[in-house]
Amino acid sequence: MAIDKSMNILIVDDYKTMLRIIRNILKQIDFNNIDEASDGTEALTKLRTGQYGLIISDWNMAPMTGLQLLQEVRADNRLRQTPFIMVTAESKTENVVAAKAAGVSNYIVKPFNAETLRDKIEKVLGHA
Amino acid sequence: MPDPRLAARALSAEFCGTMPLDGRETGVEALREKLAAIRAEQPYLEPDIVAKIVSAVLTTIGHDLSTKEATLLKEVGELSNTIAIAKAEIAALRVNDIKDHDIPSATDELDAIVDHTAQATNSILESCELLDEVAASVSGDIAVKLLAATARIYESCSFQDITGQRISKVVTTLKTIEDKASQIVRTFGQQEKAVSQDAETCSTPEAALLNGPQLPAQAMDQSDIDKLLASFE
Q1: Closest Cα partner for A78 from A39, A44, A125?
Q2: Does residue B199 carry a pLDDT above 50?
Q3: How many CB pairs under 8 A join A and B?
Q4: Which of the residues A21, A25, A58 would you substitute to probe the B interface, choosing the one with the greatest number of B C-beta atoms within 10 Å?
Q5: Phi then psi for B84, rounded to 5 degrees?
Q6: Residue-wise pLDDT tens digits, A47-77
């Protein structure tokens, strides 16, 4: 079964440059329905009013961090099954453990490449 | 401001002059209570005033002491001199200049670096997006090569995010130094009142996890993270 490339993807990062980079990489691998949010609060609002097949989020943002966003998503009955990839420079063991405990689907450390992003998206969507 | 000599004479007369030879422990206890009372009255007593009081007390009671006590008290006297020297050295550092000018200037420079790299990165990204449009209008090997090249550029441009986070860490460190400098100024003779020193306390448990990018020698790479995640399966 092929990946549904028409799904809506929400990317969350407080660096506009990073949003632009991820958006362009996603477009290169044929995902064109991409929405953006600059922190967890804005992301949660969009998630609760829209339909998204995948969340790709940074961790270190204010006022709501990526980890808090993940916890909110997993606590929400409608959103809890949405695949969630953390893309962050936080690369300590305790970060990965905390994210896993909160229910992260996969974890990408910055700086990353397009191949890693594509690989992780395929894995979380069940097409490894 | 209390006169150190008068304070010393009062303490000396009260606790040393009337102290029986076999009642020193009682005298020490009384001295502690008196010092506690002084602290309650003067919570922000400057260190050099304390040093002067100690020095004056030592001078007053010096002739009643044994050799061992005199040696100990001489060392205490030297300690008070050390405090005075440290205060002079800190004054020479012009901590206020560091706090009011040098550190804010350095943080402004670092903020400018972040702004300029962001502008440059956005220009690069605009050019890449144009190349992506060109790639979409051609076919075959040329399109593949163009897309591969722009993908590499997109990946490389994430340096701006990493750089920004590293600079944020440096700015946080500079602000910590600024706070410490302020505390030193307050402790050594300025008239400002002491403040809470719990600035390093993390406000939430998650705050301890937010370390930002690690230096290459300390960081886990993607394969390490993949292995760690796999260990949960």
Answers
A1: A44
A2: no
A3: 110
A4: A21
A5: -65, -40
A6: 999 999 999 999 999 899 999 999 999 999 9
The yes/no answer to whether this complex scores an ipTM above 0.90 is no
d(CA A98, CA B88): 49
Q: Quote the tokens at residue B39.
A: 């602290």
Partner residue opposite A113 with nearest CB, options B121, B155, B213: B155
Q: What residues pair up with B114 in beta bridges, in sequence order?
A: none
Q: What is the pLDDT of residues B55-84, one digit of tens each?
A: 777 676 666 667 777 788 788 888 888 888
Nearest to A121 by CA among A29, A16, A32, A20: A29
Is this model's pTM higher than 0.90 or not? no
- Rounded Cα distance between B111 and B104, Å, is 10
Residue whose pair of structure tokens reads 């980890």 in the numeric block: A67
Whether B118 sits inside 8 A of A17 (CB atoms) is yes
Phi, psi of A105 (to 5 degrees): -85, -40
Sheet holding A9-12, edge to edge: A34-37, A9-12, A54-57, A84-88, A106-109
User: Region B114-140: what's the mean pLDDT?
Assistant: 92
Picking from B107, B105, B19, the residue whose alpha carbon sits closest to that of residue B60 is B19
d(CA A96, CA B185): 41
Are the beta carbons of B107 and B171 closer than 8 angstroms? yes
Q: How far is CA B211 from CA A10, A52, A89, B218, in A?
A: 25, 30, 9, 12
Report CA torsion sign: B174, B178, B181, B187. Answer: negative
